[in-house]
Amino acid sequence: MNDYAVETIQVDRYFAKVVAVRDLNLRVPRGSLCGLLGRNAAGKSTVMRMLAGLIKPHCGRVLVHGGDPFIFNAEQRAALGYVPERIVLPLFLTAEKLIKFFARLQVNYDSTQATGLLAKLEINPRRKIGELSLGQQKIVSFVLAVAQRPTVLLLDEPSANLDAVARRIMLDAVLELAREQGTTVLLSTHILSDIERVADQIAIIAHGTLKIADSLDRLKETIKRVRIVGPHEALAGVVVPASFSLRRAETEIEAVMSLDNEEALAQSLRAAGCSYEANPLSLEDIFVEVAGP
């Protein structure tokens, strides 16, 4: 058993002539809570569906706990929780009946936890799913997945259509899973404040390709906006390390880059007769620079 609960290895997935995921190499450490970030149509939902075993990659391998989720047996599937972006629940059933149904199918299903979460989120368990709002349906889907007590939980935009209170309760439940049960969570959302509150790992994809993946702390520590100032002749000879964005002017260079060794950059700039300043970025700024056009 390796250190990663979730892996994609050189994965390609396309729909007709549209490439959704290209050469994706994603690794999520066991027990971590990883935020999967990307713009609309970046490929996030496709990644989630492959990890959930709903679709197969056209190239490469998708692994959850070292196995192919597309061929999981009943026990392995019970350990994999998944909340899709678009909820698919039987509209004629109530949340109460769905909880009882899943409890009969899965030995470790926590009906008490499910009922408690519904009460905390003010969802009437006796109302039919079709009578609930889209946000309430999302809550029911989330509760059903959490009550599985999964070892891996995939959450695709789980807080869409939810108010701030419901989002906070949901995130607290996710944190409890990760901290107390060691559940590995892969969370996709456009609400970056939610990611900053709970995630310890970040992966950013753009056009189906992984752009960067690291711990949230390290990303904030190393990715900086760097402004280099000096004479035109000196700046012309300055070699800027690989950067996410770069703007050159007559007497100034501005770049967003990962500064793994800031001292080495400082020494080279001083030797060239240039000065610089490096400023940290928020997660939102990092996302815009990495995932932008």
What can you see in these coordinates?
With 293 residues, this protein is an alpha/beta fold. The protein has helices at 44-51, 74-78, 95-105, 111-120, 134-146, 164-180, 192-198, 216-222, 232-236, 262-271, 283-291, and strands at 4-15, 18-29, 33-37, 59-64, 80-83, 152-156, 184-188, 201-206, 209-215, 223-229, 243-248, 252-258, 275-280. Helices cover 35% and strands 30% of the residues. Helix 4 (111-120) runs antiparallel to helix 5 (134-146). The protein is built from eleven helices and 13 strands.
Name the CATH architecture of the largest domain.
Answer: 3-Layer(aba) Sandwich
Largest sheet, strands/sense/barrel: 6 strands, mixed
Beta-strand content estimate? 25-35%
Q: Assign the CATH topology of the largest domain.
A: Rossmann fold
| The number of domains | 2
Which sequence of strands runs across the widest sheet? 5-6-7-3-8-9
Measured between the Cα atoms of the first and last residue, the distance is 38 Å
Assign the structural class, choosing from mainly alpha, mainly beta, alpha/beta, alpha+beta, or little secondary structure: alpha/beta
- Described by the principal axes of the CA atoms, the overall outline is elongated
Strands, count: 13
